[in-house]
């Protein structure tokens, strides 16, 4: 049997690609583009951490109290709708998606994500999703899906990332840059390239350039 390129094929039965990286390096935009090219959904793991943080903030729960957070999560089951075009996050009938990228969630999420109990809860949600999909986050290739067939880790300088993010947010570039550097520092424990990941500096590349680089690097599969 001849090996055929993966592009455009619906690859069944396992996670295809993990895309990890630093904050605002383009993970969700790139994962969405790769997933659409492959005809599969993508999964944004960060949305689960963001939703846990939002619910805790709304409840006035301390962000370092794992027991209180998990009690709250069990009382408000979250549902990640993993679509190729964009993920949506629900708490019961309420959609949280548009509230998850606020500055206050950005500032609190690393503390929540540092709690081992919360990480175990998120990992269980992710591993229960039906494969195949493209997974993006911080530890998809190292911890959650170490068996993935292809792994990538995106980087770019804080200034480049801040300039991109400034197109989406009202804050100025230096303020965004400082917040990104701080979030990277807090996330360092849970964010590292897998030994078998390809690291891509997205700084000199367009979004389409990064997506094309990943698609071109995917292993062929048996037809
Ligand atoms: N290579 C690129 N060239 C130009 N713009 C890009 C590139 N990659 C991403 N962007 C833009 O940068 C911004 C941040 O991208 P995105 O939200 O996908 O990053 P992220 O890593 O998922 O962020 P976060 O970690 O905060 O969830 C978006 O406006 C996106 O369109
Ligand atoms: N696998 C992951 C994914 C995310 N986090 C934490 O969530 C925050 C938000 O994630 P984004 O991808 O939306 O930026 C991130 O800053 C981490 O604190 C994580 O720990 N592991």
Automatic annotation (TrEMBL):
<keyword id="KW-0418">Kinase</keyword>
<dbReference type="InterPro" id="IPR027417">
    <property type="entry name" value="P-loop_NTPase"/>
</dbReference>
<keyword id="KW-0808">Transferase</keyword>
<keyword id="KW-0963">Cytoplasm</keyword>
<dbReference type="GO" id="GO:0016301">
    <property type="term" value="F:kinase activity"/>
</dbReference>
<feature type="domain" description="Cytidylate kinase">
    <location>
        <begin position="17"/>
        <end position="217"/>
    </location>
</feature>
<feature type="binding site">
    <location>
        <begin position="21"/>
        <end position="29"/>
    </location>
    <ligand>
        <name>ATP</name>
    </ligand>
</feature>
<dbReference type="InterPro" id="IPR011994">
    <property type="entry name" value="Cytidylate_kinase_dom"/>
</dbReference>
<dbReference type="InterPro" id="IPR003136">
    <property type="entry name" value="Cytidylate_kin"/>
</dbReference>
<protein>
    <recommendedName>
        <fullName>Cytidylate kinase</fullName>
        <ecNumber>2.7.4.25</ecNumber>
    </recommendedName>
</protein>
<dbReference type="Pfam" id="PF02224">
    <property type="entry name" value="Cytidylate_kin"/>
</dbReference>
<comment type="similarity">
    <text>Belongs to the cytidylate kinase family. Type 1 subfamily.</text>
</comment>
<keyword id="KW-0067">ATP-binding</keyword>
<keyword id="KW-0547">Nucleotide-binding</keyword>
């Amino acid at each position: 049997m001849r090996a055929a390129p993966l592009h455009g094929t619906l690859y069944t039965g396992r996670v295809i690609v993990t895309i990890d990286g630093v904050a605002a390096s383009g993970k969700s935009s790139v994962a969405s583009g790769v997933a659409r090219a492959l005809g599969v959904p993508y999964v944004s793991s960060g949305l689960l951490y963001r939703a846990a943080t939002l619910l805790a903030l709304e409840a006035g729960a301390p962000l370092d109290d794992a027991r209180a957070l998990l009690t709250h999560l069990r009382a408000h089951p979250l549902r990640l709708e993993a679509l190729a075009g964009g993920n949506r996050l629900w708490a019961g009938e309420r959609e949280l998606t548009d509230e998850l990228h606020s500055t206050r969630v950005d500032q609190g999420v690393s503390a929540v994500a540092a709690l081992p109990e919360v990480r175990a809860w998120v990992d269980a949600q992710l591993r229960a999703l039906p494969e195949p999909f493209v997974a993006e986050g911080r530890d998809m290739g190292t911890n959650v899906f170490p068996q993935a067939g292809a792994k990538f880790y995106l980087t770019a300088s804080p200034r480049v990332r801040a300039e991109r993010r400034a197109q989406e947010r009202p804050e100025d570039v230096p303020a965004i840059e400082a917040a990104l550097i701080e979030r990277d520092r807090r996330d360092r424990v849970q964010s590292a390239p897998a030994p078998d990941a390809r690291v891509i500096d997205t700084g000199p590349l367009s979004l389409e350039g990064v997506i094309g680089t990943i698609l071109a690097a995917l292993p062929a599969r048996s037809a």
